[in-house]
Design a protein that fits this description.
The protein has about 270 residues and is mainly α. The chain folds into two domains: about 1-100; about 110-255, Methane Monooxygenase Hydroxylase, Chain G, domain 1 (Up-down Bundle). It contains nine helices and five strands. The strands form two sheets. Strands 3-2-5 form a three-stranded antiparallel beta sheet. Strands 1-4 form a two-stranded parallel sheet. Helix 2 (about 30-60) runs antiparallel to helix 3. The protein is elongated.
Length: about 270
């Protein structure tokens, strides 16, 4: 009983220390669920103390009775609750740590070029996925350094629609990497937060797989449309905001007959 209490409490404290000791970064949903699991396990451990005391008290006062045996059996259920809380918390803690290791680090204030490439990446990949991009901006508003809006809004309850949106969401980070400005860090954690939230709601058992696939697809599309992203990013740096869907489309597609060169393309 004491061991389970120490295991649950100690694990929760260790996880809090691990994430609290790093600079501020987005905490994955797994983190909160893991702490909640350890808390439930600890509560069951405390309950086990009370249950064991009640069982001994009953046996001491009334001897071995059918009721006492039922109470005694119930203690094993409470024990399983404490052990289950610890094991579930351990699994969720592992998922939280692995997701944290995958995540790009959150950097400081981005350069205008980094922001422009980030939003241009969202826009071009949204175009590639069949969306209509209605706004691309690097105008600073509050804590936001820019935005990209597209239509129609996907229904994330449908897997194929959710996959398209996830690819678009991961494209900002992929474009930052392609620009050479990222240095292993991104200034925007909201994209990944949105992806993780959606996956946890609609595909909790496939989060690692879907996240890795979305990231890989975003990088592939960004690489294949490097020129388009660069062209749109340059325009954003000069004009800050592009609010016209038709103009955005023309900028992405380029002049008639223009084909985007993949990153690293060598005509020789």
């Amino acid at each position: 009983m004491k061991s389970l209490l120490w295991l649950n409490g100690g694990s929760a404290a260790a996880l809090l220390t691990l994430f609290g000791g790093t600079r501020p970064r987005l905490v994955t949903p797994y983190f909160g669920y893991s702490i909640a699991s350890f808390a439930v396990g600890a509560a069951f451990s405390v309950g086990l103390f009370v249950w064991a005391y009640a069982t001994q008290l009953h046996y001491g006062n009334k001897g071995i009775t059918k009721t006492g045996q039922w109470i005694h059996s119930g203690g094993y259920i409470v024990l399983l609750g404490a052990l289950g809380g610890f094991l579930c918390g351990l699994r969720l803690a592992y998922d939280a740590i692995m997701a944290e290791r995958r995540r790009p680090m959150i950097g400081s204030t981005p350069t205008p070029r980094q922001t422009a490439w980030h939003e241009a990446g969202h826009a071009v990949v949204a175009w590639d996925q069949g969306f209509t991009v209605t706004l691309v901006s690097i105008r600073r508003i509050g804590d936001s350094y820019g935005c990209c809006q597209h239509t129609p809004a996907a229904d994330c309850a449908i897997q194929s629609e959710c996959e398209r949106e996830n690819i678009v969401a991961m494209a900002g980070w992929a474009a930052e990497l392609a620009s050479g400005e990222a240095n292993g860090e991104t200034y925007d954690s909201s994209d990944l937060s949105w992806v993780l939230s959606g996956l946890h709601q609609h595909a909790p058992s496939r989060i690692d797989i879907e996240l890795g696939w979305s990231e890989s697809e975003a990088q592939r599309i960004v690489s294949a449309n490097f020129d388009r992203i660069e062209r749109l990013a340059i325009e954003l740096i000069h004009r800050v905001e592009l609010p016209n869907a038709s103009e955005i489309l023309k900028l992405i597609e380029g002049p008639p007959g223009t084909a985007s060169r993949p990153r690293g393309y060598d005509p020789r």
